[in-house]
């Protein structure tokens, strides 16, 4: 029986495939998958999905392990076991806005895709803010007057710069994570342990 791995499509997918290749895994089936959403390799089965769906597949035991951004775990808090950080997908949460914005007398309004993370962060600072949840490009919100600032993931900062925004406050760093189904860790320990061990080589570097 092969382990089933759920992998976040896109940037994390490409970085994880490189990560596997560096550890001697045969990644050719993953590179040649085309539009397939399920792929078999010699070592495991892979399911490709959006980040939040990766967490859901792992939580419900469809996948034994998952590779997902820490933002999904922090925002959605799925019932999975957070095994370890991975040495890619490194970025940071930050508060950003227009550099010349004038502080308002009213409660600060923050636009974000991450209302739970944002609320928790400001609450821990003893500050109450109004949250505007957006699904798309949050950079528009301050420019159009919908919000004073935004909370978002920043990697290079180029998108902020191109839209005339600056980082006002660094919040915290995140990376990709390896997560596991709780029952799989117990029932499939013998087949999962070698795979998990091979991921741990650079854990100390995070």
TrEMBL record:
One biological process term from GO is: L-histidine biosynthetic process
Q: Quote one Gene Ontology molecular function term.
A: ATP phosphoribosyltransferase activity
Q: A Pfam family name for this chain?
A: HisG
Could you tell me which pathway this protein works in?
A: Amino-acid biosynthesis; L-histidine biosynthesis; L-histidine from 5-phospho-alpha-D-ribose 1-diphosphate: step 1/9
Domain ATP phosphoribosyltransferase catalytic intervals: 53-200
Q: Where in the cell is it found?
A: Cytoplasm
Gene3D superfamilies to which the protein is assigned, alphabetical: Periplasmic binding protein-like II
What's the Enzyme Commission number for this chain? 2.4.2.17
Checking InterPro entries in the record gives: ATP_PRibTrfase_cat (IPR013820), ATP_PRibTrfase_CS (IPR018198), ATP_PRibTrfase_HisG (IPR001348), ATP_PRibTrfase_HisG_short (IPR024893)
- Its catalytic activity? 1-(5-phospho-beta-D-ribosyl)-ATP + diphosphate = 5-phospho-alpha-D-ribose 1-diphosphate + ATP
Mind telling me which GO cellular component terms the entry cites? cytoplasm
Amino-acid biosynthesis among keywords: yes
Q: Which family does it belong to?
A: Belongs to the ATP phosphoribosyltransferase family. Short subfamily.
Q: What does this protein do?
A: Catalyzes the condensation of ATP and 5-phosphoribose 1-diphosphate to form N'-(5'-phosphoribosyl)-ATP (PR-ATP). Has a crucial role in the pathway because the rate of histidine biosynthesis seems to be controlled primarily by regulation of HisG enzymatic activity.
Q: How does it assemble?
A: Heteromultimer composed of HisG and HisZ subunits.
Mind telling me what this protein is named?
A: ATP phosphoribosyltransferase
The organism named in the record is Lederbergia lenta (Bacillus lentus)
